Amino acid sequence: MIYRNSFLKKELRQAYTENKISTNRKIAFALFLGLISFAFYFVFQTLQESVLSDVVPEIMQPSYFSTLYIYIHLAYFLSAGYYIIYYDTLFFSEIRKNSWYLMIHMGYNPARMFFSKLLALGYTALFVYTLGFVAIILLTALLKFPFIFAYLPSLYLVGFTDLVMLTILSMVFSLYARTIINARYWIGVSAFLILLLKIVLGHYDVISNRIAMQNIFNLFDMNTSLYFPLWIVVVVICGLVCLFRAGNLARYYNLSEDLSLLPPDVSLILMNSKTEKKELVAIRGKQIVERKLIHKVVTVLLAAFIGVALAINVFIIVINASSTGQEVSIRGVIPFIFQSNTMEPEIMVNDLTYFQRIDPQYPVELEQIVLFKENNVLYIERVAEIHGDRLVVDIDNYPPMSQIGAMKKTISRENIHGVYSGRNRWLGALILFANTIMGRILFLLIPAILLFYHEQIVKLLKR
Known about the structure:
- Keywords: Membrane, Transmembrane, Transmembrane helix.
- InterPro entries: LexA/Signal_pep-like_sf (IPR036286).
- By secondary structure, the chain is an alpha+beta fold.
- The protein has three domains: 7-255, no CATH class; 258-289, no CATH class; 290-463, Umud Fragment, subunit A (Ribbon), CATH 2.10.109.
- 53% of the residues lie in helices and 13% in strands.
- The protein is built from 15 helices and ten strands.
- The longest helix has 32 residues, at 110-141.
- The chain is elongated and about 100 Å long.
- It starts with 6 loop residues before the first helix and ends with a helix.
Protein backbone atom coordinates (compact mmCIF):
# COMPACT_ATOMS: atom_id res chain seq x y z
CA MET A 1 0.00 0.00 0.00
CA ILE A 2 1.48 3.36 -1.02
CA TYR A 3 0.46 6.64 0.59
CA ARG A 4 0.93 9.92 -1.22
CA ASN A 5 1.45 11.74 2.07
CA SER A 6 2.20 10.65 5.61
CA PHE A 7 0.35 7.91 7.46
CA LEU A 8 -1.00 10.50 9.91
CA LYS A 9 -2.62 12.50 7.10
CA LYS A 10 -4.17 9.32 5.75
CA GLU A 11 -5.63 8.57 9.18
CA LEU A 12 -6.95 12.10 9.50
CA ARG A 13 -8.78 11.65 6.22
CA GLN A 14 -10.25 8.33 7.32
CA ALA A 15 -11.19 9.47 10.82
CA TYR A 16 -14.36 10.81 9.27
CA THR A 17 -15.98 9.49 6.09
CA GLU A 18 -16.45 11.33 2.82
CA ASN A 19 -12.94 12.76 2.55
CA LYS A 20 -13.80 15.69 0.25
CA ILE A 21 -16.24 17.19 2.69
CA SER A 22 -15.06 15.58 5.92
CA THR A 23 -14.57 18.90 7.74
CA ASN A 24 -18.05 20.06 6.79
CA ARG A 25 -19.49 16.78 8.00
CA LYS A 26 -17.66 17.07 11.29
CA ILE A 27 -19.12 20.52 11.79
CA ALA A 28 -22.58 19.31 10.78
CA PHE A 29 -22.38 16.37 13.18
CA ALA A 30 -21.26 18.65 16.02
CA LEU A 31 -24.14 21.06 15.36
CA PHE A 32 -26.52 18.11 15.20
CA LEU A 33 -25.32 16.99 18.64
CA GLY A 34 -25.99 20.45 20.02
CA LEU A 35 -29.43 20.76 18.40
CA ILE A 36 -30.66 17.31 19.42
CA SER A 37 -29.46 17.89 22.99
CA PHE A 38 -31.38 21.17 23.00
CA ALA A 39 -34.46 19.36 21.67
CA PHE A 40 -34.18 16.64 24.33
CA TYR A 41 -34.10 19.31 27.01
CA PHE A 42 -37.49 20.60 25.86
CA VAL A 43 -38.85 17.06 25.70
CA PHE A 44 -37.85 16.57 29.33
CA GLN A 45 -39.51 19.86 30.21
CA THR A 46 -42.85 18.36 29.15
CA LEU A 47 -42.29 15.79 31.91
CA GLN A 48 -41.63 18.43 34.56
CA GLU A 49 -44.56 17.30 36.71
CA SER A 50 -43.49 13.67 36.97
CA VAL A 51 -41.16 11.40 38.88
CA LEU A 52 -38.23 12.63 36.75
CA SER A 53 -38.17 15.92 38.63
CA ASP A 54 -37.45 14.00 41.84
CA VAL A 55 -35.12 11.32 40.47
CA VAL A 56 -33.04 13.25 37.91
CA PRO A 57 -33.49 16.96 38.74
CA GLU A 58 -30.15 17.69 37.07
CA ILE A 59 -31.77 17.43 33.61
CA MET A 60 -34.99 19.25 34.51
CA GLN A 61 -33.66 22.55 35.84
CA PRO A 62 -33.67 25.86 33.92
CA SER A 63 -29.88 26.14 33.71
CA TYR A 64 -26.84 25.60 31.51
CA PHE A 65 -26.01 22.62 33.69
CA SER A 66 -29.08 20.70 32.52
CA THR A 67 -28.54 21.24 28.79
CA LEU A 68 -24.82 20.44 29.03
CA TYR A 69 -25.50 17.38 31.18
CA ILE A 70 -27.85 16.09 28.49
CA TYR A 71 -25.29 16.95 25.81
CA ILE A 72 -22.37 15.01 27.27
CA HIS A 73 -24.53 11.89 27.49
CA LEU A 74 -26.00 12.19 23.99
CA ALA A 75 -22.55 12.90 22.55
CA TYR A 76 -21.30 9.75 24.26
CA PHE A 77 -24.03 7.47 22.91
CA LEU A 78 -24.08 8.97 19.41
CA SER A 79 -20.29 8.67 19.24
CA ALA A 80 -20.66 5.02 20.22
CA GLY A 81 -23.12 4.63 17.35
CA TYR A 82 -20.66 6.33 15.00
CA TYR A 83 -17.90 3.97 16.13
CA ILE A 84 -20.15 0.98 15.52
CA ILE A 85 -21.23 2.08 12.04
CA TYR A 86 -17.77 3.12 10.82
CA TYR A 87 -15.82 0.59 12.86
CA ASP A 88 -14.15 -0.90 9.78
CA THR A 89 -12.53 2.44 8.91
CA LEU A 90 -11.76 3.92 12.31
CA PHE A 91 -10.02 1.14 14.18
CA PHE A 92 -7.52 -1.69 13.68
CA SER A 93 -9.60 -4.04 11.56
CA GLU A 94 -7.36 -2.94 8.68
CA ILE A 95 -4.53 -4.88 10.32
CA ARG A 96 -6.53 -8.09 9.92
CA LYS A 97 -6.95 -7.11 6.27
CA ASN A 98 -3.13 -6.99 6.06
CA SER A 99 -3.04 -3.26 5.29
CA TRP A 100 -0.06 -2.87 7.62
CA TYR A 101 1.70 -6.10 6.65
CA LEU A 102 3.77 -4.78 3.74
CA MET A 103 4.35 -1.43 5.41
CA ILE A 104 5.86 -3.08 8.50
CA HIS A 105 8.18 -5.18 6.34
CA MET A 106 9.10 -2.10 4.33
CA GLY A 107 10.44 -0.45 7.47
CA TYR A 108 7.49 1.57 8.79
CA ASN A 109 7.56 1.96 12.56
CA PRO A 110 4.46 0.21 14.04
CA ALA A 111 4.55 2.41 17.14
CA ARG A 112 4.48 5.55 15.01
CA MET A 113 1.64 4.14 12.92
CA PHE A 114 -0.32 3.32 16.08
CA PHE A 115 0.08 6.80 17.51
CA SER A 116 -0.84 8.31 14.14
CA LYS A 117 -4.14 6.44 14.14
CA LEU A 118 -4.74 7.25 17.81
CA LEU A 119 -4.02 10.96 17.34
CA ALA A 120 -6.15 11.16 14.20
CA LEU A 121 -9.16 9.59 15.87
CA GLY A 122 -8.58 11.59 19.05
CA TYR A 123 -8.34 14.84 17.12
CA THR A 124 -11.59 14.13 15.28
CA ALA A 125 -13.47 13.15 18.44
CA LEU A 126 -12.13 16.21 20.29
CA PHE A 127 -13.03 18.56 17.43
CA VAL A 128 -16.61 17.30 17.12
CA TYR A 129 -17.17 17.11 20.88
CA THR A 130 -15.78 20.60 21.54
CA LEU A 131 -17.73 22.23 18.72
CA GLY A 132 -20.94 20.55 19.89
CA PHE A 133 -20.23 21.69 23.46
CA VAL A 134 -19.88 25.29 22.28
CA ALA A 135 -23.04 24.94 20.16
CA ILE A 136 -25.19 23.82 23.09
CA ILE A 137 -23.87 26.73 25.19
CA LEU A 138 -24.84 29.22 22.47
CA LEU A 139 -28.28 27.63 22.07
CA THR A 140 -28.87 27.70 25.82
CA ALA A 141 -27.95 31.39 25.85
CA LEU A 142 -31.15 32.01 23.89
CA LEU A 143 -33.12 30.88 26.94
CA LYS A 144 -31.44 33.59 29.06
CA PHE A 145 -30.53 31.26 31.91
CA PRO A 146 -28.04 32.54 34.52
CA PHE A 147 -24.56 31.82 33.13
CA ILE A 148 -22.31 30.06 35.64
CA PHE A 149 -18.88 29.35 34.19
CA ALA A 150 -17.62 27.37 37.20
CA TYR A 151 -19.15 24.01 36.24
CA LEU A 152 -18.41 24.22 32.49
CA PRO A 153 -14.82 22.86 32.71
CA SER A 154 -15.97 19.98 34.93
CA LEU A 155 -18.78 18.97 32.58
CA TYR A 156 -16.49 19.25 29.56
CA LEU A 157 -13.90 17.02 31.21
CA VAL A 158 -16.50 14.40 32.20
CA GLY A 159 -17.80 14.05 28.65
CA PHE A 160 -14.34 14.01 27.11
CA THR A 161 -12.98 11.34 29.46
CA ASP A 162 -15.97 9.13 28.65
CA LEU A 163 -15.17 9.42 24.95
CA VAL A 164 -11.50 8.61 25.59
CA MET A 165 -12.44 5.49 27.55
CA LEU A 166 -14.84 4.30 24.85
CA THR A 167 -12.33 5.02 22.08
CA ILE A 168 -9.42 3.17 23.64
CA LEU A 169 -11.60 0.16 24.49
CA SER A 170 -12.88 0.09 20.91
CA MET A 171 -9.29 0.00 19.68
CA VAL A 172 -8.55 -2.97 21.93
CA PHE A 173 -11.65 -4.79 20.69
CA SER A 174 -10.60 -4.26 17.07
CA LEU A 175 -7.31 -6.05 17.78
CA TYR A 176 -8.90 -9.12 19.36
CA ALA A 177 -12.30 -9.49 17.69
CA ARG A 178 -12.10 -11.92 14.78
CA THR A 179 -15.21 -10.57 13.09
CA ILE A 180 -16.49 -7.06 12.57
CA ILE A 181 -19.97 -7.85 13.87
CA ASN A 182 -18.60 -9.18 17.18
CA ALA A 183 -16.47 -6.06 17.65
CA ARG A 184 -19.50 -3.87 17.03
CA TYR A 185 -21.49 -5.69 19.69
CA TRP A 186 -18.57 -5.40 22.12
CA ILE A 187 -18.46 -1.63 21.57
CA GLY A 188 -22.20 -1.33 22.20
CA VAL A 189 -22.07 -3.40 25.37
CA SER A 190 -18.99 -1.58 26.69
CA ALA A 191 -20.76 1.78 26.24
CA PHE A 192 -23.40 0.69 28.76
CA LEU A 193 -20.89 -1.02 31.06
CA ILE A 194 -18.89 2.21 31.39
CA LEU A 195 -22.00 4.03 32.60
CA LEU A 196 -22.78 1.18 34.99
CA LEU A 197 -19.23 1.40 36.36
CA LYS A 198 -19.70 5.13 37.00
CA ILE A 199 -22.88 4.43 38.94
CA VAL A 200 -21.32 1.66 41.04
CA LEU A 201 -18.25 3.76 41.90
CA GLY A 202 -20.37 6.76 42.92
CA HIS A 203 -19.15 8.94 40.07
CA TYR A 204 -22.69 9.96 39.15
CA ASP A 205 -23.27 11.27 42.66
CA VAL A 206 -20.54 13.81 41.94
CA ILE A 207 -21.28 14.80 38.34
CA SER A 208 -25.03 15.21 38.97
CA ASN A 209 -24.38 17.70 41.79
CA ARG A 210 -24.29 21.27 40.48
CA ILE A 211 -22.54 22.56 43.59
CA ALA A 212 -19.83 19.88 43.57
CA MET A 213 -19.20 20.33 39.84
CA GLN A 214 -18.29 23.98 40.33
CA ASN A 215 -14.95 22.73 41.66
CA ILE A 216 -13.22 20.56 39.06
CA PHE A 217 -10.97 18.97 41.70
CA ASN A 218 -14.00 17.22 43.22
CA LEU A 219 -13.86 14.86 40.25
CA PHE A 220 -10.51 13.56 41.47
CA ASP A 221 -11.46 13.23 45.14
CA MET A 222 -10.87 9.55 45.96
CA ASN A 223 -13.03 9.85 49.07
CA THR A 224 -16.13 10.37 46.93
CA SER A 225 -15.36 8.27 43.84
CA LEU A 226 -12.60 5.98 42.58
CA TYR A 227 -13.66 6.31 38.95
CA PHE A 228 -10.90 8.64 37.75
CA PRO A 229 -8.00 6.63 39.25
CA LEU A 230 -9.50 3.53 37.65
CA TRP A 231 -9.96 5.44 34.40
CA ILE A 232 -6.27 6.33 34.31
CA VAL A 233 -5.27 2.70 34.92
CA VAL A 234 -7.61 1.35 32.23
CA VAL A 235 -6.56 3.92 29.61
CA VAL A 236 -2.83 3.32 30.21
CA ILE A 237 -3.18 -0.48 30.13
CA CYS A 238 -5.35 -0.39 27.00
CA GLY A 239 -2.91 1.96 25.31
CA LEU A 240 0.02 -0.37 26.00
CA VAL A 241 -1.98 -3.39 24.88
CA CYS A 242 -2.85 -1.66 21.62
CA LEU A 243 0.73 -0.58 21.04
CA PHE A 244 2.25 -4.05 21.39
CA ARG A 245 -0.67 -6.06 19.98
CA ALA A 246 -0.92 -3.90 16.85
CA GLY A 247 2.81 -4.22 16.17
CA ASN A 248 2.85 -7.99 16.66
CA LEU A 249 -0.35 -8.64 14.71
CA ALA A 250 0.77 -6.52 11.75
CA ARG A 251 3.96 -8.57 11.29
CA TYR A 252 2.03 -11.67 10.23
CA TYR A 253 -0.25 -12.26 7.27
CA ASN A 254 -3.83 -12.82 8.41
CA LEU A 255 -6.24 -15.02 6.50
CA SER A 256 -9.56 -13.24 6.18
CA GLU A 257 -12.45 -14.93 7.97
CA ASP A 258 -15.06 -12.97 6.03
CA LEU A 259 -16.44 -15.67 3.77
CA SER A 260 -18.37 -13.14 1.75
CA LEU A 261 -15.04 -12.20 0.13
CA LEU A 262 -14.62 -15.65 -1.41
CA PRO A 263 -14.88 -15.93 -5.20
CA PRO A 264 -18.27 -17.24 -6.39
CA ASP A 265 -16.82 -20.57 -7.57
CA VAL A 266 -14.85 -21.39 -4.38
CA SER A 267 -15.86 -23.68 -1.52
CA LEU A 268 -14.14 -23.71 1.86
CA ILE A 269 -13.48 -26.56 4.29
CA LEU A 270 -12.09 -26.03 7.79
CA MET A 271 -10.34 -28.80 9.72
CA ASN A 272 -10.22 -28.95 13.50
CA SER A 273 -6.54 -29.30 14.49
CA LYS A 274 -7.39 -31.43 17.53
CA THR A 275 -10.03 -33.80 16.18
CA GLU A 276 -8.96 -33.54 12.51
CA LYS A 277 -12.66 -33.33 11.69
CA LYS A 278 -13.44 -31.49 8.46
CA GLU A 279 -16.37 -29.12 8.18
CA LEU A 280 -17.78 -27.51 5.05
CA VAL A 281 -18.42 -23.86 5.91
CA ALA A 282 -18.95 -22.28 2.48
CA ILE A 283 -20.17 -23.41 -0.93
CA ARG A 284 -19.64 -21.21 -3.98
CA GLY A 285 -18.75 -18.22 -1.87
CA LYS A 286 -21.84 -18.45 0.35
CA GLN A 287 -21.43 -18.97 4.08
CA ILE A 288 -23.22 -21.94 5.65
CA VAL A 289 -22.46 -21.53 9.33
CA GLU A 290 -23.57 -18.09 10.54
CA ARG A 291 -23.52 -16.51 13.95
CA LYS A 292 -27.07 -17.64 14.60
CA LEU A 293 -27.17 -16.72 18.27
CA ILE A 294 -26.40 -13.04 17.67
CA HIS A 295 -28.87 -12.82 14.80
CA LYS A 296 -31.60 -14.44 16.86
CA VAL A 297 -30.95 -12.02 19.71
CA VAL A 298 -31.33 -9.06 17.33
CA THR A 299 -34.57 -10.47 15.94
CA VAL A 300 -35.94 -11.14 19.43
CA LEU A 301 -35.05 -7.62 20.60
CA LEU A 302 -36.78 -6.05 17.59
CA ALA A 303 -39.86 -8.20 18.15
CA ALA A 304 -39.85 -7.37 21.86
CA PHE A 305 -39.63 -3.63 21.17
CA ILE A 306 -42.52 -3.79 18.69
CA GLY A 307 -44.61 -5.85 21.12
CA VAL A 308 -43.90 -3.55 24.07
CA ALA A 309 -44.62 -0.42 22.01
CA LEU A 310 -47.95 -1.82 20.81
CA ALA A 311 -48.86 -2.88 24.36
CA ILE A 312 -48.05 0.62 25.63
CA ASN A 313 -50.30 2.14 22.97
CA VAL A 314 -53.20 -0.10 23.97
CA PHE A 315 -52.57 0.69 27.64
CA ILE A 316 -52.53 4.43 26.92
CA ILE A 317 -55.89 4.19 25.16
CA VAL A 318 -57.32 2.48 28.24
CA ILE A 319 -55.82 5.07 30.60
CA ASN A 320 -57.02 8.00 28.52
CA ALA A 321 -60.51 6.51 28.54
CA SER A 322 -60.45 6.39 32.36
CA SER A 323 -59.14 9.94 32.62
CA THR A 324 -62.08 11.31 30.63
CA GLY A 325 -64.65 9.99 33.08
CA GLN A 326 -65.32 6.56 31.56
CA GLU A 327 -63.41 4.36 33.97
CA VAL A 328 -62.12 1.06 32.60
CA SER A 329 -61.60 -1.93 34.88
CA ILE A 330 -58.82 -4.44 34.17
CA ARG A 331 -59.38 -7.59 36.24
CA GLY A 332 -61.02 -5.60 39.00
CA VAL A 333 -58.47 -2.75 38.97
CA ILE A 334 -59.22 0.75 37.67
CA PRO A 335 -56.06 2.54 36.37
CA PHE A 336 -56.24 6.32 36.57
CA ILE A 337 -53.78 9.13 35.80
CA PHE A 338 -54.09 11.67 38.60
CA GLN A 339 -53.50 15.17 37.22
CA SER A 340 -53.82 17.26 40.36
CA ASN A 341 -51.70 18.09 43.41
CA THR A 342 -54.64 17.94 45.83
CA MET A 343 -53.58 14.56 47.28
CA GLU A 344 -49.86 15.22 47.75
CA PRO A 345 -47.74 13.69 49.13
CA GLU A 346 -49.75 10.44 49.05
CA ILE A 347 -50.40 10.81 45.32
CA MET A 348 -48.28 13.13 43.17
CA VAL A 349 -49.22 14.86 39.93
CA ASN A 350 -49.31 12.52 36.90
CA ASP A 351 -48.93 9.37 38.99
CA LEU A 352 -50.58 6.26 37.60
CA THR A 353 -52.92 5.21 40.41
CA TYR A 354 -54.71 1.90 40.94
CA PHE A 355 -58.15 1.58 42.48
CA GLN A 356 -59.72 -1.71 43.50
CA ARG A 357 -63.21 -1.83 42.06
CA ILE A 358 -65.79 -2.37 44.82
CA ASP A 359 -69.45 -3.33 44.96
CA PRO A 360 -72.16 -1.46 46.95
CA GLN A 361 -71.76 -3.84 49.93
CA TYR A 362 -68.02 -3.21 50.37
CA PRO A 363 -67.36 -1.49 53.75
CA VAL A 364 -65.59 1.83 53.12
CA GLU A 365 -63.44 2.94 56.06
CA LEU A 366 -62.25 6.29 57.38
CA GLU A 367 -59.02 7.71 55.91
CA GLN A 368 -59.32 5.57 52.78
CA ILE A 369 -58.72 7.28 49.44
CA VAL A 370 -61.63 6.65 47.10
CA LEU A 371 -62.46 7.16 43.45
CA PHE A 372 -65.95 8.53 42.97
CA LYS A 373 -68.00 10.14 40.23
CA GLU A 374 -69.97 13.34 40.58
CA ASN A 375 -71.71 15.09 37.68
CA ASN A 376 -69.98 12.64 35.27
CA VAL A 377 -66.55 13.73 36.53
CA LEU A 378 -64.17 11.40 38.40
CA TYR A 379 -62.61 12.64 41.66
CA ILE A 380 -60.02 11.23 44.05
CA GLU A 381 -60.32 12.29 47.68
CA ARG A 382 -59.97 10.92 51.21
CA VAL A 383 -62.89 9.80 53.39
CA ALA A 384 -63.15 12.19 56.37
CA GLU A 385 -66.51 11.19 57.89
CA ILE A 386 -69.06 8.40 57.44
CA HIS A 387 -72.76 8.91 58.12
CA GLY A 388 -74.51 5.75 57.00
CA ASP A 389 -74.82 5.87 53.21
CA ARG A 390 -73.45 9.40 53.12
CA LEU A 391 -69.72 10.11 53.24
CA VAL A 392 -67.80 13.34 53.72
CA VAL A 393 -64.64 13.48 51.59
CA ASP A 394 -61.83 16.02 51.49
CA ILE A 395 -58.50 16.66 49.78
CA ASP A 396 -55.12 16.33 51.53
CA ASN A 397 -53.22 19.29 50.11
CA TYR A 398 -54.77 22.75 50.20
CA PRO A 399 -53.15 25.60 48.26
CA PRO A 400 -51.42 28.33 50.31
CA MET A 401 -53.74 30.94 51.82
CA SER A 402 -56.72 28.58 51.44
CA GLN A 403 -59.14 27.74 54.22
CA ILE A 404 -58.69 24.14 55.41
CA GLY A 405 -61.88 22.16 54.92
CA ALA A 406 -63.32 24.45 52.26
CA MET A 407 -63.22 21.61 49.70
CA LYS A 408 -65.17 19.12 51.78
CA LYS A 409 -68.14 17.58 50.08
CA THR A 410 -70.78 14.99 50.92
CA ILE A 411 -71.33 12.14 48.48
CA SER A 412 -73.53 9.08 48.29
CA ARG A 413 -72.01 5.66 48.93
CA GLU A 414 -73.24 4.42 45.56
CA ASN A 415 -71.09 7.02 43.75
CA ILE A 416 -67.86 5.39 44.97
CA HIS A 417 -66.32 3.22 42.24
CA GLY A 418 -63.04 2.13 43.80
CA VAL A 419 -60.67 2.20 46.77
CA TYR A 420 -57.05 3.30 46.38
CA SER A 421 -54.62 0.36 46.32
CA GLY A 422 -51.35 1.81 44.99
CA ARG A 423 -49.53 3.90 42.40
CA ASN A 424 -46.65 3.73 39.91
CA ARG A 425 -44.82 6.97 39.28
CA TRP A 426 -42.63 5.64 36.45
CA LEU A 427 -45.55 4.33 34.43
CA GLY A 428 -47.22 7.68 34.96
CA ALA A 429 -44.19 9.45 33.50
CA LEU A 430 -44.10 6.98 30.59
CA ILE A 431 -47.75 7.65 29.76
CA LEU A 432 -47.16 11.39 30.05
CA PHE A 433 -44.25 11.09 27.59
CA ALA A 434 -46.24 8.84 25.26
CA ASN A 435 -48.84 11.59 24.89
CA THR A 436 -46.22 14.06 23.61
CA ILE A 437 -45.19 14.40 19.95
CA MET A 438 -41.89 12.58 20.57
CA GLY A 439 -43.76 9.86 22.42
CA ARG A 440 -46.14 9.35 19.52
CA ILE A 441 -43.19 9.03 17.15
CA LEU A 442 -41.40 6.54 19.40
CA PHE A 443 -44.36 4.34 20.25
CA LEU A 444 -46.39 4.62 17.03
CA LEU A 445 -44.25 5.59 14.04
CA ILE A 446 -41.04 3.68 14.82
CA PRO A 447 -42.83 0.37 15.68
CA ALA A 448 -44.82 0.67 12.44
CA ILE A 449 -41.58 1.10 10.46
CA LEU A 450 -39.94 -1.83 12.26
CA LEU A 451 -42.99 -3.99 11.68
CA PHE A 452 -42.74 -3.62 7.91
CA TYR A 453 -38.96 -3.37 7.52
CA HIS A 454 -37.65 -5.65 10.28
CA GLU A 455 -36.27 -8.17 7.79
CA GLN A 456 -34.21 -5.51 6.03
CA ILE A 457 -32.94 -4.25 9.39
CA VAL A 458 -31.88 -7.74 10.47
CA LYS A 459 -30.07 -8.27 7.16
CA LEU A 460 -28.30 -4.93 7.59
CA LEU A 461 -27.11 -5.90 11.09
CA LYS A 462 -25.82 -9.23 9.77
CA ARG A 463 -23.27 -7.51 7.54
